[in-house]
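REVIEWER CHECKLIST
Item 1: Sequence provided? yes
Item 2: Single chain? yes
Item 3: Sequence as submitted:
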Amino acid sequence: MDVKTMYLPTIEAVKDAAERLKDVAVKTPLSPNLNYSKAFKSNIYFKREDLQLVRSYKIRGAFNKISSLSPEDLQNGIVCASAGNHAQGVALSCKLKKIKGTIYMPTPTPVQKIEQVKMFGEEYTDIVLQGDTYDDAYNAAISECKRLNKTFIHPFNDEKVIEGQATIGLEILEQANFPVDYVFIPVGGGGLASGLSTVFKHLSPETKIIGVEPLGAPSMSESIKKQSLVELASIENFVDGAAVKKVGALTFPICDRNLDGMITVHEGKICQVILDLYNRDAVVVEPAGALSIAALHKFQDEIAGKNVVCVVSGSNNDITRTPEIKERALLYGNLKHYFIVKFPQRAGALREFVVDILGPTDDITHFEYTKKTNRVNGAAVVGVELRSPDDLHPLMTRMKKHNFFGDYLNDKPELFQFLV
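Item 4: Structure as written out by the authors:
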């Protein structure tokens, strides 16, 4: 896209958005984090957007967009499609503006998220569960807008939404009584990254802005690499607040121009950060909220001695996901391993495995076995949690020496997904 014709938010527009939001969005703290500062030998600050009323920054863009609509547009009503934070931001905006909104969500959306949207929107929002995926809900929402002349509130590909998210950049620069060397930003559709990066390029051009995506949904990374808007065929939805197949036509050229780096982070690393933040700092974040912090290890040498801001984008994490988060973190850290174990069909075989094969700190956390008749050996799927990654090789050596080893499942994803 020609730089002369591409949309870029102006500082004046962002300041106007900040004025609209002053009694709606919380001016969230810019808090130093001692644990990460010590670990990375730098000054790490968290911009705590997880402390917004709707527990994410999305209220900024949603309210700014809705506030810009004409009385006629407001009278006709607004529509959005979202299974998460954007829906909650739109719902609260509808209640505050006392206008009617319809929010389309995929049918499998967890009840907890649906209830949150109902709580924030009260009688001003109707929730429609449509289809199995976000795309199904999005298409139904667009259809209603066309049919009833309603206004669609896009989660990221909209000028007023971008300008609303950009107010985070103004706040960081107001709150920081020090030069900001790096800002790490989570990237989904690119609304936050394009808005915040523009503010910094105007007011603090020496600051390096790094965008961070989940490894399984690298839509902005691929678009920048190929210098054109890319739609991914499929994505990993675990980091649901930052997993999009295609970033915005407005946001892509801004991020391409402004970002000093665009990287991806493994979902397992994100899970480990979620657990660390909870255990060490009593901070609850959603997967997208941990993205910016999970990227720090890739810049360990560069950020030493620097002032670094990580935007913690949200905390809408469902507690029922905790077992999956722990599992992904252990797998990523090479501390959880699954095997097909061949057990001799005789009494005492399991005891032999526990006493002679497992190490003193190895722990069985998964066991599936059915005794078969007329078989010399019976296969079991066994999950073992280790104290250290270095314990894996000795464990496998003992299994093979005593003829218990059948197969190792961690590096066989298709078989792993089927059996575990």
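Item 5: Key structural point noted by reviewer: The two ends are 47 Å apart (CA to CA).
Item 6: Recommendation: ____
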